[in-house]
Amino acid sequence: MKKCLSLSFQYFAILAMISFCTACSSTEKEQEEMCEKVYQSLKDNQSKIIIKMNGEKFYKEESIFGGHLEILEKNVTISYYDQFDSNVMIHFGGNKWYAARPIRVPVMLESGYSSNVMIGRMKNKAKKLGEGYLMASGFLTMKSFTKDKIIMMIEGKAKKYPKVDETSPSYDVKGYFISKRPKIDYLTVDEKAAFYDKVEK
Q1: 3-state per-residue secondary structure call for 117-168
Q2: pLDDT (tens digit per residue) in 96-128
Q3: Which of 137, 131, 132, 140 is nearest to 109 (CA)?
Q4: How far apart are CA 78 and CA 186, in angstroms?
Q5: What is the rounded distance in angstroms from the CA atom of residue 115 to the CA atom of residue 75?
Q6: What is the separation, in whole angstroms, between the first and last Cα of the chain?
Q7: Where are the domains of the chain?
Q8: Fewest beta carbons within 10 Å, which of 33, 34, 35, 189?
Q9: Overall average pLDDT of the 57-68 stretch
Q10: Which of 135, 131, 132 is nearest to 117 (CA)?
């Protein structure tokens, strides 16, 4: 009897694992399709930043971003604004930051740490009132990284500026930075070593 129960438990455990993996794979595929659809809707040198904070959309649906982009041997810097004066600033780097496939960079809110993300939006343009958040922990993952196409997944925890210490509340952040043929202001990285369209599974 115990043996039958043990086998039944193993069977259901395997089924649950298969269902979980299938759901994850399906969700990932849906996200890839969404990113590709957004990418195709953009014009050259346009970017979309689709961010959800605690499940709520952070930027306006119609927001289109553009600005300053550097891809250097030691680091990457993105400083973009949309037509509503919302902004995003992303900086990461290190020795051979581009070596992994996919490129996956940890983000930490520590003094002197080489990776950081700031997202901000205008709440009242007439009064010039806005709000900003700094990512306290998480990852940046390059799904595609070429001169024609950048798709970066952003996920982690953020804290509202200026109260960003350990005791300050954290907010779940997840989304994508999608850019079509962006103007690259400075490019010094080895393109063959750094760029890739997508990672084959």
Answers
A1: EEEEEEEECCCCEEEEEEEEEEEEEEEEECCCEEEEEEEEEEEECCCCCCCC
A2: 999 999 999 999 877 555 789 999 998 888 888
A3: 137
A4: 11
A5: 9
A6: 42
A7: 1-41, 44-194
A8: 33
A9: 97
A10: 135
DSSP SS3 for 20 = helix
Phi, psi of 5 (to 5 degrees): -65, -40
With H, G, I as helix, E, B as strand and everything else as coil, classify residue 34: helix
Phi and psi angles of residue 27, each rounded to the nearest 5 degrees, phi first: -60, -40
Model pTM? 0.84
87, pLDDT greater than 90: yes
What is the overall mean pLDDT for the chain?
A: 87
* Encoded tokens for 68: 């300053």
Q: Which residues, 6 or more positions from 170, have their beta carbon under 8 angstroms from its beta carbon?
A: 136, 157, 158, 159
Predicted pLDDT at 2: 44
User: What are the C-alpha distances in Å from 57 to residues 54, 62, 116, 174, 191?
Assistant: 9, 12, 21, 10, 34
**Which are the contacts of 194, defined by CB distance < 8 A and separation ≥ 6?**
71, 98, 145
pLDDT value at residue 164? 86
- Smallest CA-to-CA distance from 75 within 187, 171, 193 is with 187
Q: Which residue has the tokens 């990672």?
A: 199
Other C-beta atoms within 10 Å of 180: how many? 19
Q: Determine the pLDDT at residue 53.
A: 96
Q: Which two tokens stand for residue 38?
A: 């957004």
Q: How far apart are the C-alpha atoms of 111 and 96, rounded to whole Å?
A: 21
